[in-house]
Amino acid sequence: MPSITILLTLVAVVAAQTQYSCPADSGKTTVVNSKKYELKCAKGIKGMPFEEEPCTDVTACAQRCAANPECLHSTFIDKTKKCALKKEGEVFDNAALATWYFVEKVVEPKPVEPKPVDNTKPVDNTKPVDNTKPVDNQKPIDNSGGKEDPENQASYACPADQGKRYVTNGKTYELKCNTGHAQGHWRAESCPTLKECASRCANDPQCFSSDFDEGSRVCALKKAPAVTTGWSGHVWWPTECPKTRQASAAAKPVVTTSLTCPQNDGKIFEGSDGTWFYLQCCSDADGAVILDYKVVSSHKECSEECVKNKQCKSFMFIPGMEPAGGHANCRLYTNGNFSMTRLEGVHYAFVTDPPTKDAELSDAKRCSTECPSADGQLYVSPTGENFLMSCKARHGTTVLKTERRPSFEACMASCAAMPACQSADYEPRTKKCFFGNNTKRPAITAEAFVSAHSLGCSGACAGCKKGCDQVGSSPMPADAATCAEDHGKLIAAAGQDFRLYCSHCFRSSGHFILPGATNLAECAKACADEPRCHGVNWIAGKGCNAHPERDPGGNRPTFGQEATCHALAPLDRSMAEPESLQKHS
């Protein structure tokens, strides 16, 4: 008869759950692709997902993570029906989420069919199991996709590679040959190579370091630091120290936004207030005066403590230390420069010069009032008031008055003539001048605008020159399409596009008047609002004269050149190409 082991295996397979939901199944586990996950209802994982795609349900979200070699945990977002895949992260509370939390690699049970049994003699179908050797529960980890460092070796061996480094998944390990941990291990599993043992540790967020036994090909993972001792195997020990220590500060250091060591040793980073720091991994100050002690949660937070204290010139951070019982892991100094003091387990940074780049030649030209030459220049108005000009910007504050002016200079001159006006925003496209009372630089970036604000008077009309004629000039008329500049162009009105034909007219016996239009643009809008209008003439002094597709006799309008009117042809109606119509004399 089948052994009890086989029977239990069969029961487990039959009873395996195929669908999960929250909160009913919170705390339950599932195994997919040899990966064991625990369902944590009302929980999420901190950090940005590397993938977030639509997903049918919680169960499918676990399957999506298991199929992706980079995924460690996955979160199902019920509101959006999406599955977010995470490489790592801490758990946090959120009632709207459900998370599959990776537990370990396992061997999925497979159903076993019992062989025919001779009932006269009991048969044991199981083979003896050697429990002294761990089972290989994992396949080699695929470290493709940017995790591997290009300086890594293809393989590692002792004693030839003693002290060599292996960088994977953002972690740096140093090989210590004939060395092992003095205390017990968290988990041991069969592993094909020394390099693979480091990869497995790097891809498990709970693993700190690992031992590899050459004889048995076993990789033993360690959760926390422990004393090392002599041994026949080898250890991969995490390090945050640079391989080669700098003898002096780099003349032109690289800028970074990450404080991860040792990858960013010798680089500079910026604090929130614009202060720049030079990072030295595994270093401390050579002899700086201690300003204060702080308890922080990260390297970045320690740097910000230095930023907040204006007396701070450098700081030291202890990574991995759990701040408890008031023990500080961040130390601030009142002075500091490049340090020659090497100290494993701590990182040091000092205030340094900000990065520079080659100066760009200015496009500014004195006395210009046109961009880009006017940017940052002073304009002296006819009344003697000074204005600072700013290109590609506008104030955007409450407008005192809006007028159309032919140029930016005319706009500023008009502002100077009004006692209440302190600023002017000018839009060359529409020739609109927006007068305001803002006395500061414009705060809104806008490429379509040029602005100016008053810096006060420099003495009556001492600066009066060609701008004097702008002081009492009248505003320009309202902006509108005109035949002086727009012949043959498209005109948009009421959601319709029209082609403008200056000095051309439609003629038909079925024409009718569109009342209310006072200019070319209003005539176009009136035609757009009238379905019967398939072409329209704007006749100055007489109004808007529309033409249907056909007159009462079934004839189409004619089209020809005439000085008395300007024609507009709607592009989505029957006379979109009026040149094809019969010409009239």
From TrEMBL:
Keywords (alphabetical) are:
Signal
Domain annotation Apple: ranges: 282-356
Coiled-coil region(s) at which residues? none
Which N-terminal residues, if any, form the signal peptide?
A: 1-16
Output the Pfam families linked to this UniProt entry: PAN_1, PAN_4
Stretches for region Disordered: 111-155
Query: Gene3D superfamilies from the xrefs?
Result: Hepatocyte Growth Factor
Q: What is this protein called?
A: Apple domain-containing protein
**Natural source organism:** Plectosphaerella cucumerina
